Structures are given as structure tokens and as C-alpha cells.
Amino acid sequence: TIMLSLRITPFGERKKQRLVVGRDITKIYHLNMIRRDFVANASHELRTPLTVIAGFLENLLDAPGTPEPHRRPLTLMHNQTERMRSIIEDLLTLSRLEMRDSAEEQTAVDVPDELHLILQEAQALSQGRHQFTAQIDEDLLLLGNPPELRSALSNLVFNAVKHTPDGTDIRLLWQRRAEGIEFSVIDDGLGIPAEHLPRLTERFYRVDRARSRESGGTGLGLAIVKHVLNRHDGRLTIASELGHGSRFVCRFAAKRALARTEPQTAAAL
Ligand code: ADP
């Protein structure tokens, strides 16, 4: 921090003086690194035993000799194991996002194509309980990392399915705007109380813990979206009104736009 002030000397002279305040963040940086590595290692170590447990549970469920009264508890155990696996996969995704160099693997991402696939998956997840509309600029591609962008876009679309009641309209927009490129997911569901909005992208933060769990949520989706956007010089804005629905908007810098007709090479940013 640099502060400028004026000092009046005993002779009435005005003298500019400068005060520099610094803070050593080496320790914070180091602790953050330890936390990051711990989460990554713990998630990685838990992955194998869980895969083994899930595998044995599947075998038991498939075996014709498994007694009928055991099937329900086995199914419940299997569901919970799968839930744990999703949480661990999301934690690993977050750790990788934190560790990776943002300059790597930049290519022309066919966002319209990805969005058509995501829409199909969202429709399958919704099972006819939501109405979808999409306005997609078919020629607009984005310079970035394909799996990361796929996961960010799908998280937002699947959230609209998971966290809104039956009969909700879900609208997707992919377009060029004066301020850059925008991807929006707009729903007319129940909305989110204002006090929760600033905390939604924190890890494991959910408005309704029990409901999120029921819908298969890990509470890590929006944290992943935020990290992916950070790595693409993008920003996530969330606006919501109770009783009227929510609007999640991802904004990317115009320099990341590529036209489908342009040669699709990774341009230097
Ligand atoms: P989850 O795995 O629970 O979906 P997220 O990090 O993706 O975790 O989202 C955090 C919380 O934000 C959700 O649990 C839910 O309460 C709220 N949320 C996200 N999207 C919506 C939406 N479209 N409508 C209402 N609430 C939402």
C-alpha cells in the first residue's frame, strides 16, 4: 500500500511524503499450498478404496443369490458410495484447476456444439419437468480449454434443472455483446435469497443442504465454475429474485472470440 500525504514543516513549507506499508505473505502462500496439496492427495488416496467398495457392492447387487432383504441396504450403500465418488471427483477437479498453469491447452472451443450436447443431457436429467429454450450464436467459438469450459457450462445448466421446481422455464444464451462474450442460464424458478448470493461460489456452500444432497449435488459446482472462469479471464455474475428466478451470467473478454470461419488455431492471447 502506498499512501501520499502532505506534511507542513515548522517553516510552513509543504512537503509531500510517502508511506509504504508492506505485508509478507510468504507464510499465507505456503499454508495455502499445503492445504491445496493435502486436499489433492487425500482425494486421490480415497479414490481407489471407494472404487473397490463400489465394485463389490455392484457384484452383490448383480448376484442372483443375494437375499432379497439385503438388496435395499446394499442399494443405499451403493448410492452413498457413488455420492462420495462424485464429491471426490469434484475435489480433484478443483485441485487440478488450482495447480494448473492457465496458459496451457488453449484451443478453439466449439461452445455451440458443447451446448447442444449439454442441452440433450439436461433434457434427459429433467425428464420433461422443465421447458428449455436456447439462443445460440452458432458461429461463435471461444479460445480456451475444452474440458474445463464443458464442465463450467454444464454445471450451470444442470443446476437450473436440479434446483428449480417442475414447470420451470430454462433459457440458455450464447452471444456476442458490446462488453464481450456472454453465456447465460436464466430460469424462472424459486430464486435465491439475497443473503446467500455472495457465498454461492464457496466450496460446499448450499442454500438448502438437504435438497441439494437429494438432487445429487456436491456443493462444489459453482466453485468449479468460478475457478474455470478465472482461468479464462472471465467473470461469473449471479442475479436472483425470490419468487422470480435466477440468472447466471459468464462474461468473457472479446479477445477470446473466434468465428467458426476463421482458421481454428490457438492464437496467442
Ligand atoms: P450443488 O452441488 O449443490 O448444485 P453448487 O455449488 O453448484 O452446488 O451450487 C450451490 C448452491 O446454489 C446450490 O446448492 C443451490 O442451493 C444454489 N443454486 C445453484 N443454482 C441455482 C438455481 N439455478 N436456482 C436456485 N438455486 C441455485
Automatic annotation (TrEMBL):
Organism (species): Allochromatium warmingii (Chromatium warmingii)
Entry EC number(s): 2.7.13.3
Taxonomy, superkingdom: Bacteria
GO molecular function: ATP binding; phosphoprotein phosphatase activity; phosphorelay sensor kinase activity
Main location: membrane
Protein's recorded name: Phosphate regulon sensor protein PhoR
Known catalytic reactions: ATP + protein L-histidine = ADP + protein N-phospho-L-histidine
Primary role: Member of the two-component regulatory system PhoR/PhoB involved in the phosphate regulon genes expression. PhoR may function as a membrane-associated protein kinase that phosphorylates PhoB in response to environmental signals.
Keyword terms of this UniProt record: ATP-binding, Cell membrane, Kinase, Membrane, Nucleotide-binding, Phosphate transport, Phosphoprotein, Transferase, Transmembrane, Transmembrane helix, Transport, Two-component regulatory system
Residue intervals of the Histidine kinase domain: 41-256
Coiled coil spans: none
Gene Ontology cellular-component annotations: plasma membrane
GO biological process: cellular response to phosphate starvation; phosphate ion transport
Range covered out of full length: 183 to 451 of 451
Localization of this protein: Cell membrane
